[in-house]
Task: structure prediction
Amino acid sequence: MKTLRSFLCGRWLEGSGAPQILVNPATEEPLGQVSSEGLDLAAALVYSRDRGGAALRALSFAERGALLREMSKAMQAQRDELLDLAVANGGNTRSDAKFDVDGAIFTLQSYAELGEKLGPAKFLVDGEGVQLGRSPRFHGQHIRVPRHGVAVHINAFNFPAWGLAEKAASALLAGMPVLSKPATSSALVAHRLMEILVEKKILPDGALSLLVGAPRDLPALLGGQDVLAFTGSGDTGTRIRALPNIVRESVRVNVEADSLNAAVLGPDAAPGGDMYETFLKDVLRDMTQKAGQKCTAIRRVLVPEAHATTVRDDIVEGLKSVRVGDPSLEETRMGPVASSAQLADVREGVGKLASEGKAAFGSAAPLGGKGFFISPVFMEFAKAALATSVHAREVFGPVASLLRYSARGADAAAIVARGNGGLVSSVYSEDAEFLEEVVAGIAPYHGRIFLGHPKIEMSPGPGTVLPQLVHGGPGRAGGGEELGGLRGLSLYTQRVALEGSRPVIQKLIGATPG
Ligand code: NAP
Result:
């Protein structure tokens, strides 16, 4: 069994005290042990701020981008090993594991390219300069500079590789050092990734640190120049945000939390048509990929009354062929959920949904034998307008619910909005009026809207987060925003307005006087 150590203050350090055990969720076999007890977290933060921060700020965007490029190459070189670990420790099928690991590589590459484009600059020029007085000499210009703290990244269990990489890419490119803390249950992938990066000596001293095991009082140690980017449950996010130091010091916090993502089938997308098939494929993929443990997975399936029975029957038919089992076997389509706690949570959630709806497929009943397996569950709600649990409880597993609506765009939008803020919802229609009504109705409640279309080649569906587009959402989803190309650097930079003589400012920002 491997003992996982943290990489803090430029060294591998082992915690003391009773360890937490990491297991294979398919077999319950122990794979690793970890403890963060006794580690000096305050010293680790100081080291990151002082060493890592200074080193990164001395580099240009192009140089920081080159570091990200090297990180992606190092991951690519050891991709197979990382995939094997994701299968063993995350319950991922090989395809699920690729989704995580390749997503991490792609995101690092994407931010490496941004760095190359930004070239020799060390800070961002934000918009055009403005004339402030009668004479053009009195000038204003906004810039964005890296904050002088440390970016603490706390991640959820479902994407150990992507979670570390997507957050680190934006922060490192912005010029901020990172201390990353993966969720404990699936930490083997992030831990190995860190070992690879340290072995290859890619990053400057202090630029990237890793804390494995319990977070202890890490968020309580942050100050006004630090950033905390958290991904996980809404409850933990709320607790962190309310910490006295976070409030008192105005610590910048980004929360990516729960989401009841919806897929809306338009009345024009009749069963049998290409649009309908695209919709069906996306729903079935989202229900079973990573055993439904994706923050972006479709949870609510909105269907016009007239097509509801056909949709239900087609989804049930699709789910019948999903082979649940050992994720290391090629024929397996869906592995277990990540932990016993997660399994208990999913069962409890299905029970809540069942108090108002009924199962069209599957159940929360134990599957027997070792491992944290559960069948996909498709629930049906006769009266979407009256149901409450389906709009309030994210069941983080292979679970989705069918909701009927009248065929009017405004009705569908009103039902979607009851989720009170989400990461992404999708609409499948070519009817311009319907699309306009739904998009206008749901846009304020989301970070992203996916407009499904059969002609988009190799469409990844709504569940894939792309580095070029923002990820996050209002309300229940935490109110955060990550990625989105250069927008992702906003969290890690301070916008400051320069006000003064135009030639002086232009010299400072390296612009050609004009
Ligand atoms: P969680 O219990 O909130 O844990 C998330 C992370 O927070 C873990 O690293 C955990 O560490 C850490 N943590 C727990 N308590 C903490 C505290 N008091 N202070 C600081 N850190 C703390 O969530 P989860 O059950 O692992 O994740 C599932 C949830 O994440 C789902 O609700 C899902 O929607 C959400 N999620 C959201 C997104 C998104 O992008 N919006 C992506 C993925 C998942 P330990 O593991 O050591 O306890």
Q: What stands out?
A: The first helix runs from residue 41 to 57. The radius of gyration is 24 Å. The chain has a mean pLDDT of 96.
